[in-house]
């Protein structure tokens, strides 16, 4: 099998929460859980989730800001997190009829829910109206659908207006969502304000990417709109600045930077490949030159979660030359955020069983797991976090070996990770592979049941490592 001495220097060591460390130390419990629930299984905990809520609240409280945290439920389908958010006095951002209905059936009041779904059909809008859920309006067709519903039912509805097209660096930030600032002013002042059944509550935006500077520019322009509305007697109660708060997955900055450098060398043919068939992870090689950067999540970050939010709040708004937190506080506005991934940081792991070992036609070791690639998939070109190999082999028999993890779909590209992985020992059938920190977007966002494979079970671990299945259908 192919191995290289360089592989051992390219670890991407994950940060591991204490509850996961304790669980990994109990090999028998881990093996029994996989046996009971089948492979793969998502083992989760609401402990880190509650800690992450507290982290954000600490930042808001530091600047004495009225605030509300809405968990972006699309990041993980388990209802336990929505319940935990509501129990903490916060809210839930719902993006579909089922997400909204489940939250309501779980006893979460409509006042603690918002509806941001990219597509809102009549049934979804009617449910939101009937349950007094704040509806984020994205386009005029949505507005007109809502208008017809509330007039027919003669019932009031709360709305916020999604904004897009912010100016930044002498350009317009591209987006397929929301109204321009000019369109929003006209809609709010000319139609909503005079509407017998619609009540304007606030403004909303969500920016793609992770730029603090772009968010500051967007907030600055939102405040200008808020002031313009106030000048004609329209009060804005809240400003929702969406999600996209960075997470730090990795323990070592040098490892992350080294991998980036070595990946480029590999694609250029200057060192052995780091990925299957030297996949460039989104970069393009043309005439011997690399173009672009890897299309992957920035897995190592030093400004993340609460630090990321605080950087936004303490940045100066260019129009007003004041800190963002001062602008918000002076106007008595509730500042809202919609974290998904960052509230789920360290809240879950995915565990799968080794079923086979083989070599491909090029001599690469392939380790087959009892799962498919959609059960560990996000928009990132690869999940650049080292998995953990759990084996019952005796220590003296261990000898490192490198290879690739493959899944159950009958496709040539069915690789769970494109990156070559170094195992402490040759994997044995029945060994377990643990993917750390997968609760946010990795477990559920793209999972599918092609080949009629069952979806992974979702179980929860409490402080005493007792395993339960509170979300079982």
Automatic annotation (TrEMBL):
Its cofactor is pyridoxal 5'-phosphate. The keyword Metal-binding does not apply. InterPro entries: Ala_racemase/Decarboxylase_C (IPR009006), De-COase2_N (IPR022644), Orn/DAP/Arg_de-COase (IPR000183), PLP-binding_barrel (IPR029066), Y4yA-like (IPR042152). It comes from the Bacteria. Keywords: Pyridoxal phosphate. The keyword Cell membrane does not apply. Residues 53-266 form the Orn/DAP/Arg decarboxylase 2 N-terminal domain. PANTHER family: DIAMINOPIMELATE DECARBOXYLASE (PTHR43727), GROUP IV DECARBOXYLASE (PTHR43727:SF2). This is Y4yA family PLP-dependent enzyme. It comes from Sphingobacterium oryzagri.
